[in-house]
Amino acid sequence: NAGVTQTPKFQVLKTGQSMTLQCAQDMNHNSMYWYRQDPGMGLRLIYYSASEGTTDKGEVPNGYNVSRLNKREFSLRLESAAPSQTSVYFCASSPTAVPGLAYPGTQYFGPGTRLLVL
Amino acid sequence: DAKTTQPNSMESNEEEPVHLPCNHSTISGTDYIHWYRQLPSQGPEYVIHGLTSNVNNRMASLAIAEDRKSSTLILHRATLRDAAVYYCILRDYDGYALNFGKGTSLLVTP
């Protein structure tokens, strides 16, 4: 049981290049999330997928796109990387996330992808 | 959105108890209080959560004030491995995001 896995671990891009960050979970969770963490800051939500087939914007979605490929996989794409997107990206999953419920469920995080955009 | 306030940093000696405070004066009646921690160069990990009553698990205890406007995460015997940033989080209004602030950086010294 690997939990949440992310690839790659590190990446260096030039401004304007594109790339896709991959995330997979083997816990049969319905909901998945992408966060970014800038130095000395807490995590901020980029996009989330409450269930397979749905995606929604979080706090900082500009410059990103996502795809919920299946129940296990949730990818994050940078179409044209900018230096402001230099950050550590974390993927997470949780058993359920249903509007109106007080308890959205524990989120389980991957190890992160460190991205540097020059 | 209900917000939390935590000290920027705290320090503890190894094998001593640690009490990490969190203020959340605007908490709503249905907000759960979550604690996550982030070890250096790792993703956050769940520690504990509660609603009204005090909670215990193998990692820590959570003490919640009667008016729910504050809570305290208690590590009973700090180890060097407990050095991390601890985040006190209330459920975000839409029920999806965990609203991470800056957390409390805990330093544990031998």
How is this structure best described in words?
Chain A contains no helices and eleven strands. With 118 residues, chain A is mostly beta strands. In chain B, a hairpin with a 6-residue loop joins strand 3 and strand 4 (45-50). Chain B has a five-stranded mixed beta sheet, with no helix packed on it. A four-stranded antiparallel beta sheet of chain B has the order 2-7-6-5, with no helix packed on it. The model of chain B has no long low-confidence stretch (mean pLDDT 91). The chains are: A mainly beta (118), B mainly beta (110). At the A-B interface, strand 4, strand 5 and strand 10 of A face strand 4 of B.
Largest interface here, residues on each chain?
A-B, 32 and 23 residues
Given the helix and strand composition of chain B, which structural class is it?
Answer: mainly beta
Q: Trace the largest sheet of chain B across and list its strands.
A: 1-9-8-3-4
**What is the 3D shape of chain A?**
globular
Global mean pLDDT of chain B: 91
SSE string of chain A, helix = H, strand = E? EEEEEEEEEEE
Helix content of chain A: under 10%
Instruction: Name the structural class of chain A.
Output: mainly beta
- Give the CA-CA distance, first to last residue of chain A: 36 Å
Say how many strands of chain B there are. 9
Unreliable residue stretches of chain B: none
Number of helices of chain B: 0
Helical amount of chain B: under 10%
Biggest beta-sheet profile of chain B: 5 strands, mixed
Give the oligomer, counting copies of the same chain as homo and different chains as hetero.
heterodimer
Helical segment count of chain A: 0
| Secondary-structure element series of chain B | EEEEEEEEE
Mean pLDDT of chain A: 91
Uncertain parts of chain A: none
- What is Rg of chain B? 13 Å
